[in-house]
Specification:
Blueprint: E1 7-18, H1 22-33, E2 39-42, E3 55-56, H2 58-67, H3 70-76, E4 86-89, H4 92-97, H5 117-120, E5 128-129, H6 132-145, E6 149-152, E7 154-161, E8 166-172, E9 178-188, H7 195-200, E10 204-219, H8 223-226, E11 233-236, E12 243-247, E13 253-260, H9 273-284, E14 292-306, E15 310-311, E16 314-316, E17 322-323, H10 331-350, H11 361-379, H12 389-399, E18 454-459, H13 463-470, E19 476-481, H14 484-494, E20 501-504, E21 510-514, H15 524-527
Parallel strand pairs: 1-2, 1-9, 2-6, 4-11, 9-16, 18-19
Antiparallel strand pairs: 3-5, 7-8, 8-9, 10-13, 10-14, 11-12, 12-13, 14-17, 15-16, 18-20, 20-21
Helix pairs in contact: 1-6, 1-10, 10-11
Length: about 525
């Protein structure tokens, strides 16, 4: 059949998202939460067929909870949930023989460990295991159901921007038809090799490529072998067979990450299926194990971070902005948290509630987080690109994903108490609002009140604050702690006194706090400019 190559008329959208992976799909969902209908284009026909990212940390699960998708994603990845911990051995079988079978009541996330339970109490969520190939269809369906315009098998041919808009030429890869789209803003979530980043010539920092691997996704029935001895990753500690096995479903789906050496003239084509099956059998320690290769994906283990995440009306997010090693599991999580930060700001500007200068805070807030996570992931890799498993144990408190970072806030608060040494979160500007349960059943958290909006949390009666907000054009929800039990908890977690209030941004971070006497001066417009 002859393909047509027809130029379709120009259309305008508020936000154009390039890339339909996990970061791009989440960008669509967070924009929809804000009432903004984006257009997303993805050059592939469908979502990822490779498992790649395998889990969500606590902060990301807080965000999925807010979108109403937390339990759906947890259910999608439930087969992987018991798989945590790092093994090391000359073969997988040798490593398993050293393990003591786990008893019932397994821990499914490190925050459930006794030593970390005090940290776990700071969130209504725990992390979840779910591979990227299972998560992305859930996110795609939710974005479609909620009204996003998703165009898969469509590629970005070219783009330009001026002071008013971004102009992009898109091609339908089935028909060859092209469409010119204009957008107020564009989000580049187009992966580690980001063509958008390359065209913008945005500089990168970091050590660069550390090693080359083949991601070998295969099928082999090992359910009986790992029962009650589930693990996340097994490093094959053996000369001449550098790699590690990762669990996908604790049954018949696995990935072997094989180190190969282009600098020694090794090429991907050198590793034909028969050879790969032999390598995997040797690594597992079962020479007759039936194996079926599902896919092979070459990739670079690298640490590269864009110095800026914005050029004009175009923003980088996820791997396009910060490439990191898989160690620590922060790649997808950092990208998801990027677009949640960006989406409410784009929405505020598009609704003309905020000055465009608000968007400058995206780089100042998120680039340091991406840089830190990427550099830390690099320290977990040895000279062969293999995990230093002791580094994981040393960093486990940070890696569970509580937002222990602080954003710079440039509006002065009326009063900020000194944070006690034993507190990670204390309601201080730039930090994530503290979580406390608001009901005896422990089902409703302070985080559940946000729903993508500004919220003013008031210690005690809120009449004076509501009167002050009535004169503001910006919408701010008010929640007053008036019951003795919740007031006591709130005071303990924030250091507030009767009449004090915390203004929390749509992304859950405290923007300002003040005394009741300062109610008339809530600086919302200053925060949005």
């Amino acid at each position: 059949m002859t393909q047509s190559k027809q130029q379709v008329s120009v259309a305008h959208v508020p936000v154009l998202i390039i890339g339909g992976g996990i970061t791009g799909l989440c960008a669509a969902l967070f924009l929809l939460q804000q009432g903004i209908r984006p257009l997303l284009v993805e050059r592939h026909k469908g979502t990822s067929i490779h498992p790649r990212a395998r889990g969500f940390d606590i902060r990301t699960m807080e965000l999925f909870r807010e979108l109403g998708l937390g339990e759906v994603l947890r259910e999608a990845g439930k087969a992987l949930s018991p798989a945590w911990g790092v093994l090391r051995g000359v073969t997988v079988m040798a490593a398993l023989e050293k393990m003591v079978p786990r008893e019932e009541g397994r821990i499914v996330f490190p925050s459930q460990l006794n030593d970390l339970k005090s940290l776990a109490a700071l969130s209504p969520e725990i992390g979840a295991r779910c591979t990227q190939d299972l998560a992305e269809p859930v996110l795609r369906q939710a974005a479609t159901d909620r009204g996003a315009d998703l165009r898969f098998y469509t590629e970005l041919v070219s783009f330009s921007q001026d002071a008013q808009q971004v102009t992009a030429l898109l091609r339908d890869r089935t028909t060859g038809d092209t469409t010119t789209i204009t957008a107020d803003y564009m989000i580049a979530a187009d992966g580690a090799s980001s063509p958008v980043r390359e065209k913008l010539q945005l500089p990168l920092s970091g050590p660069g490529v550390l090693a080359h691997f083949l991601n070998i996704y295969f099928e082999a029935d090992m359910a009986a072998l790992v029962k009650d001895r589930e693990f996340s990753l097994c490093i094959i500690d053996r000369p001449g067979l550098t790699g590690f096995l990762t669990t996908i479903n604790n049954s018949d789906r696995w990935v072997y990450q094989l180190r190969y050496y282009p600098e020694k003239q090794e090429q991907v084509t050198d590793f034909q299926e028969r050879r790969l099956i032999g390598i995997i059998r040797e690594a597992i320690g079962l020479p007759e194990l039936p194996i079926r290769i599902l896919s092979v994906l070459p990739w670079e283990m690298a640490v590269k971070v864009a110095d800026t995440m914005q050029r004009g009306r175009i923003f980088l997010a996820g791997d396009a902005a910060h490439v990191m090693t898989p160690y620590g599991g922060k790649g997808a999580n950092t990208g998801i948290q990027d677009v949640q930060n960006l989406s409410w700001k784009l929405a505020a500007v598009l609704r003309r509630q905020a000055a465009p200068s608000l968007l400058d805070s995206y780089t100042s807030e998120r680039q340091p987080v991406g840089l830190f996570n990427a550099l830390r992931s690099g320290t977990m890799a040895d000279e062969q690109g293999m995990l230093k498993d002791k580094e994981i144990m040393q960093n486990v408190r940070a890696l569970i994903g509580l937002p222990d970072y602080q954003y710079p806030i440039h509006v002065a608060s009326g009063y900020c108490p000194e944070k006690p040494e034993d507190r990670m979160l204390y309601g201080l500007p730039g930090t994530r609002v503290p979580h406390i349960w608001l009901d005896e059943a422990c089902r409703v958290s302070t985080l559940d009140l946000l729903k993508g909006n500004f919220v003013l949390f008031v210690h005690g009666k809120a009449d004076r604050w509501k009167t002050a907000l009535a004169d503001k054009k910006e919408e701010v929800a008010v929640y007053a702690f008036e019951e003795a039990a919740t007031i006591e908890q709130w005071q303990e977690h924030t250091g507030t006194r009767e009449g004090d209030a915390l203004l929390v941004r749509p992304d859950g971070f405290v923007a300002w706090r003040g005394r009741e006497s300062q109610a008339a001066g809530i600086p919302i417009q200053e925060l949005l400019s």
